[in-house]
Write a structure and sequence with these properties.
D-Amino Acid Oxidase, Chain A, domain 2, eight-stranded mixed beta sheet, 27% strand, 28% helix, FAD/NAD(P)-binding domain
């Protein structure tokens, strides 16, 4: 996606970021804007979980009963998204298709509606802004919805962004800021930097931000791959105006519209390691449930199927911070990598330039699970 910038291996960098998904690129961009000499190491920038993701910025719609710290982190990052998107578009000269049209969370049957009612009551206790809608009100908001839809919740504050445009813009902004890209695998962390097949890349500080692959460089890091199959459909612009999430007989599904007419449909949640197969069952279940909510999807082109690996942690909170002098980690964002990129990048850029991390990130201390004994951890990337 992005060619390596030429550099000599004798060059010393202030920071090497290993991993060019949205989290790693955002950290690199925010840090380069502070004047550090930055290099990003990844064999395929933007080609991992970010490439497969839907780009939903929906902390309200995705809230669960046991994850209030993650909710607070998501809300704080959502507040930063307008400024983050505007600055990135200025720095890159590119649009990222950032939209703030809210999320419509749909209930299809009586059991689904009971779950939505419980969710709405919980959200209201947290002070979150949601509106209960009847089936008729839902269809007025989104005319393509099935007549069988019973009702829903409208989260007006939710947003979404096109993750692929986001990656392209981040790469362009980094290039303009003078950062270097190395399309290579990081093989080992060394006290002086990072070992690649081509030689040693020297860097004073290293951030490991390669998602579910991070334990390959930092053995013992409690991050696992959570497989997600996702579809991209192609249709006319304006097919949907808001992000639609639904429960169809208890099974969750979402549809995210783009300004070019694409509809992203996802996503499965599978604990199958790095199984990269797109399965007939996964595609069928997603299309079946999407069709129950929005029958018109049957007329759209099936343009793409993809698999991504979300980096999950035992408590579903990311790992953000220092592991040892000069060694940092930013991974484990699970379903919320795109949402949490602004707050993660801001905190990491501050930490890398001598600031105290915000208290909001105390719950994300990577040492809450382990303390890695050495900055020299081996493994391929």
């Amino acid at each position: 996606m992005h060619k390596s910038a030429y550099f000599e291996f004798s060059t010393d960098f202030d920071l090497a970021v290993i991993g060019a998904g949205v989290v790693g690129l955002s950290i690199a961009w925010r840090t380069a804007r502070r004047g550090l000499r930055v290099v990003i190491v990844d064999p395929d920038p933007g080609g991992g979980a970010t490439h497969a993701s839907a780009g939903m910025l929906a902390p309200v719609s995705e809230v669960t009963y046991t994850e209030e710290p993650l909710l607070r982190l998501g809300l704080a990052s959502l507040e930063r998204w307008p400024g983050f998107a505007a600055e990135l578009e200025r720095d890159s000269g590119l649009r990222v298709d950032y939209r703030t049209d809210g999320t419509l969370d749909i209930g299809y049957g009586s059991d689904d509606m009971a779950q939505l009612d419980d969710l709405a009551a919980f959200e209201e206790t947290l002070g979150l802004r949601v509106e209960r809608l009847t089936g008729r009100e839902c269809r007025k908001w989104e005319p393509m919805l099935s007549p069988a839809v019973r009702g829903g919740l409208l989260a007006r504050d939710d947003a979404w962004v096109n993750p692929r445009r986001l990656v392209t813009a981040l790469c362009a902004a980094l290039t303009r800021a003078g950062a270097s890209f190395v399309a290579a695998r990081a093989l080992e962390l060394l006290p002086e930097g990072v070992r690649l097949a081509e030689g040693v890349l020297r860097a004073e500080r290293v951030v490991v931000a390669c998602g579910a692959r991070s334990p390959e460089l930092l053995p013992g890091l409690p991050v696992r791959p959570v497989k997600g199959q996702i579809l991209r459909l192609r249709g006319p612009g304006g097919f949907l105006s808001a992000c639609v999430r639904g429960r169809v007989h208890g099974s969750p599904v979402y549809l995210v519209p783009r300004e070019d007419g694409e509809i992203t449909v996802g996503a499965t949640m599978e604990e199958l390691g790095f199984d990269a197969r797109v399965t007939a069952g996964g595609v069928y279940e997603l299309l079946r449930d999407a069709h129950e909510l929005v029958p018109g999807v049957a007329e759209l082109e099936l343009a793409e199927t993809a698999v991504g690996f979300r980096p999950g942690t035992p408590d579903n909170l990311p790992l953000i911070g220092a592991l040892s002098p000069g060694r940092y980690v930013a991974t484990g964002h699970h379903r919320a990598g795109v949402l949490l990129s602004p707050v993660t990048a801001e905190a990491m850029a501050g930490l890398l330039t001598g600031e105290t991390p915000p208290a909001l990130l105390d719950a994300c201390d990577p040492n809450r699970f382990l303390s890695l004994d050495s900055p020299t951890a081996k493994g391929p990337r």
